[in-house]
Design goal:
- The chain has 2 domains: 220 residues, D-Maltodextrin-Binding Protein, domain 2 (3-Layer(aba) Sandwich), CATH 3.40.190.10; 100 residues, Osmoprotection protein (prox), domain 2 (D-Maltodextrin-Binding Protein, domain 2).
- Strands 8-7-9-6-10 form a 5-stranded mixed β-sheet.
- Helix 2 crosses helix 11 and helix 4 packs across helix 5.
- It has 14 helices and 12 strands.
- With 338 residues, the protein is of the alpha/beta class.
- The two termini are 36 Å apart.
- The radius of gyration is 21 Å and the shape is globular.
């Protein structure tokens, strides 16, 4: 059995940040594992898996969605018997990916679209979601010995939203309609973007929209998420807004997503592992296989709502979700003591 190097101090992970020239992110790297204090491991009640004695390290990027996915996996693997160190919220894509490749963490959830455009540096969408996954899996496996497990159905992809009134008044129901209006109308309809998503500079974001329809777009404003939704709902200053499909603010149905016929690259979350870890611990894939199908758009929006809109702790939400789905339970002794 290969022993994970997770027992190295977390300062080493901060060193990865410095090596990448991203020293500004170093403060976000946890120096300890304080969130592991308190709650004991759950008991795995999903498909029979035995990870007793396995030492693993799971990380995540720093968004609420990523932290939820990371904690779900940490708690599930612990419930199945593994000794799991966590580096949840360790940084952005470059930091966490480099930590994985250098052996500081074993696995984390990455998006297929991010794998395609940022990690593998491909500019154009790669067909259907399943074709995209297969291409990313095969290329990253061959080039970097990273295993991409079958993705969850949730799509954390870029989208453009508008109120129902805006859609009816302007007759813009698809991204193609929006592109035509940008090209032909004077002034063009205003598109506002979420300042926290990097949409303006992402090759899979605004640039992909411009390439797909041969138009040039200058966003009317870059706004905080809550303000963006308020403005788009009002339909005046920002009749159209760039959103992420799993954003919990979409759950009430007050905004409509413009139809996207493959313009934006799909971003399905896939748990990624180094090949050596996947070979040593095939049970990890079995645990993730029980989790992934349940992580739908609706499920992820609901989980994110608890964290982002209700202010709950991501780890607590993750543990409750595992119990609610029947994949884990509080051991009887712990339940009686509480």
């Amino acid at each position: 059995m290969t022993t994970s190097p997770w027992r190295r101090p977390a300062a080493v992970l901060a060193a990865v940040v410095l090596v990448l020239g991203a020293a500004s992110c170093a403060a976000d790297v946890p120096e300890a594992d304080p969130a592991d204090d308190g709650a004991d491991a759950l008991r795995w009640t999903g498909p029979e898996v035995d990870l007793e004695g396995a030492e693993l390290s799971v990380g995540s990027k720093e968004s609420a969605e990523q932290e939820l996915l990371g904690w779900i996996t940490v708690e599930a693997l612990r419930a199945a018997g593994a000794d799991v160190h966590q580096e949840i919220g360790a940084g952005g894509t470059a930091v966490v990916r480099e930590a994985q490749r250098s052996g500081l963490i074993d696995g984390y959830w990455e998006y297929t679209g991010t794998g395609w455009t940022r990690i593998l540096a491909q500019a154009e969408p790669a067909g259907t979601p399943s074709e995209l996954y297969e291409d990313v899996r095969d290329r990253d496996g061959e080039l970097n010995q990273i295993v991409w497990l079958p993705p969850a159905p949730a799509s954390s992809s870029y989208a453009v939203a508008a109120s129902g009134d805006t859609v009816e008044d302007l007759g813009i129901r698809t991204l193609a309609d929006l592109a035509a209006a940008v090209e032909d109308d004077e002034p063009p309809p205003a598109l506002c973007v979420d300042e926290g998503t990097g949409f303006e500079d992402d090759l899979a974001g605004l640039r992909q929209f411009e390439r797909a329809f041969d138009v040039s777009v200058r966003p009317a404003a870059s706004l905080p998420t809550d303000e963006l939704y308020e403005q788009v709902d009002a339909g005046l200053f920002c009749p159209f807004g760039q959103v992420i499909e799993t954003d919990p603010r979409l759950a009430d149905g007050s905004l409509e997503l413009l139809e996207d016929a493959g313009t934006f690259t799909v971003h399905n979350p896939s748990f990624t592992l180094r090949q050596d870890v996947a070979d040593d611990h095939p049970e990890v894939a079995e645990v993730v296989a029980a989790l992934s199908p349940l992580l739908t758009d609706e499920a992820v929006r609901s989980l994110r709502a608890e964290v982002e809109l209700e202010g709950r702790d991501a780890r607590s939400v993750a543990r409750a979700w595992l119990e609610d789905t029947g994949l884990a339970e509080v051991p009887a002794d712990d339940d009686e003591e509480s």
